[in-house]
């Protein structure tokens, strides 16, 4: 953890930069304009510098990108509380999105959140589901990086 999140950790005690590109590791004020902060964080991280902007969580500063992915689960997934368990697991992981039954006997929906959490939920959808379900397969489509979440919680769509 960096003691002063607005200062490059590779600065020596006397303030002299120790990183590969000395001109880029000067004191960076935390109040700097947030435009392009993602690019700045990525660029500085290549030289061992971590700069955390106000309001940016530690996990996001360390690169846990937000993604969105659509899914469909095949098998015995209707009439077995699959949607309810999916909603509970999504909420437990801090994800947002939705889940619904289809006329074809499958369950479909969308997941949004940090990549690591979405990956965990994808594995859950492929292998666990609700206790009485039997999953044949799960498909995931339209995965994309997003800048902000489109939903505020995880909903069951009727």
UniProtKB/TrEMBL annotation:
Keywords: Hydrolase, Membrane, Transmembrane, Transmembrane helix
GO molecular function, one term: acylphosphatase activity
UniProt-recorded name of the protein: Acylphosphatase
Origin: domain of life: Eukaryota
Transmembrane segments: 30-51
Chain ranges of the Acylphosphatase-like domain: 68-158
Active site: 83, 101
Lineage, uppermost ranks: Eukaryota, Metazoa, Chordata, Craniata, Vertebrata
Annotated InterPro entries: Acylphosphatase, Acylphosphatase-like_dom, Acylphosphatase-like_dom_sf, Acylphosphatase_CS
Pfam families to which the protein is assigned, alphabetical: Acylphosphatase
Catalysed conversion reaction: an acyl phosphate + H2O = a carboxylate + phosphate + H(+)
Group of enzyme by EC: hydrolase
Organism in which the protein naturally occurs: Physeter macrocephalus
SUPFAM superfamilies according to UniProt: Acylphosphatase/BLUF domain-like
UniProt EC number: 3.6.1.7
